Amino acid sequence: AFITGDTTDLAAMSEEGCVFCRSTIDDATKLHKDGGWANPWTQKITNIEYIPPGKGKEYCGVKMVVISDKSTSVEGNGRIVEEDSNTKTLLIALRRIDEDWVIGGVAVE
């Protein structure tokens, strides 16, 4: 979404109440609307863990470590913004609706 400005797939896999997803969609849309973009960068996902839903709960979880290389984006005014490489743990809440998995929420540790 940040590279191309196309948030269609992200929106399709996100529940309306996912604050993280909405924020990501809004940020990517604004970046491109203002004439900016993000350059491609490499991410590696490790330590993927499935967390089954608790009794009577409809959401399961996926916990993973995301290692991101250094990245750059360009704002509409031409200013280059550099992001240092980083490692973050993501916890994603998922549920099945019909034949699709949707994201209900994301927490970043």
Molecular structure report:
With 109 residues, the protein is of the alpha+beta class. Helix content is 18%, strand content 45%. The chain is built from two helices and seven strands, in the order ααβββββββ. The strands form two sheets. Strands 2-3-6-7 form a four-stranded antiparallel sheet, covered by helices on one side. The longest helix has 15 residues, at 19-33. It is globular and about 50 Å long. The two termini are 22 Å apart. The mean pLDDT is 95.
Shape: globular
Tell me the number of strands.
7
Number of helices: 2
Largest sheet, strands/sense/barrel: 4 strands, antiparallel
Strand order of the largest sheet: 2-3-6-7
Structural class: alpha+beta
| Sequence of secondary-structure elements | HHEEEEEEE
Mean pLDDT: 95
In the predicted model, the low-confidence regions spanning at least 5 consecutive residues are none
Strand content: 35-45%
- Cα end-to-end separation: 22 Å
- Helical content band: 10-25%
Rg (C-alpha, Å): 16 Å
Compile the SSE list and pairings.
Elements: H1 8-12, H2 19-33, E1 37-38, E2 43-51, E3 60-68, E4 71-74, E5 80-83, E6 86-97, E7 100-108
Antiparallel strand pairs: 1-4, 2-3, 3-6, 4-5, 6-7
